[in-house]
Amino acid sequence: MNWRTGLGIALLIAAIVSAWLAWKLRKHDPRIDGDEQRSDYIVHDFEMTALDKEGKESVTLRGPELRRGRDDQTFDIVTPLFLLPDGKQRHWELRADTGWVSADGSELRLRGHVAGDSPGDSDIAPATFRTDTLTVLTQQHLAFTSDRITVSQPGIMQTGIGFEAELENRHYRILSQVNVRYEPSARR
User: Fold this and answer.
1) Does 31-182 carry CATH code 2.60.450.10?
2) How far is CA 40 from each of CA 65, 78, 144, rounded to the nearest angstrom?
3) Among candidates 108, 113, 128, which has minimal Cα distance to 59?
4) Nearest CA to 115 among 90, 100, 97?
5) Computed from CA positions of residues 54, 55, 60, 66, in that sequence, does the dihedral angle turn out positive or negative?
6) Is the pLDDT higher at 134 or at 33?
7) Rounded to an integer, what distance in angstroms lies between the CA atom of residue 78 and that of residue 40?
């Protein structure tokens, strides 16, 4: 074998190794490789309203990004705002860092900095609650969590572990380790 053949073989091997390394070390966008292949579609800056069997509003959802899962047809939402009717043409507002909706829309899961605000009216003082996770069953108008929660109304703050709420009639209860702080308004 002469030196030109040896040099040609060495260059061929170097080219193959270089191409293989370039292919293995290329930069991947993991969001494109994973999420987009598993999503049927992605919607940006959206608002959608789901109706119940009677044609009444069940839930309205707003957010900057929604992804529908190809396999299970569930929805993942970035910083969602859920508006749930209370039966009197007013809405609970539920916000979180992330949200998930079942394929049939009967279950909502909110994760990270969950904030819930009841509608205010002249009969019942508005209530707010803060927790880390919340599950909502839309057809039963129920919300619950097993995490620490803080519930506030004018003049009263309640904290505890675990929470259940009937959203239509605004009844709620904290399940354990309940602490209540009453703050009467200042007398004049």
Assistant:
1) yes
2) 13, 16, 30
3) 108
4) 97
5) positive
6) 134
7) 16
- Residues 66, 43 contacting (CB under 8 angstroms): yes
pTM (two decimals): 0.72
Residue-wise pLDDT for 64-73, tens only, equals: 999 988 888 8
Distance separating alpha carbons of residues 175 and 177, to the nearest angstrom: 7
The separation between CA 164 and the C-alpha centre of its own chain, rounded to angstroms, equals 18
- Indicate the DSSP class of residue 155: T
Contact (Cβ atoms closer than 8 angstroms) between residue 80 and residue 93: no
C-alpha 83: how far from its chain's center? 13
Find out whether 78 and 64 touch, Cβ atoms under 8 Å.
yes
In Å, the largest CA–CA distance within the chain is 107
Ramachandran sector of residue 135 (left: φ over 0; alpha: ψ -120 to 50; beta: rest): beta
Cα–Cα distance measured from residue 20 to residue 27, given in angstroms and rounded to the nearest whole number: 14
Residue 51 binned pLDDT confidence (cut-offs 50, 70, 90): confident
Phi/psi at 97 (5° precision): -70, -45
> If you search the block for the tokens 């919340």, which residue do you land on?
134
| pLDDT for position 150 | 92
Q: What percent of the chain has pLDDT over 70?
A: 88
pLDDT one-digit tens code per residue, 72-82? 889 999 999 98
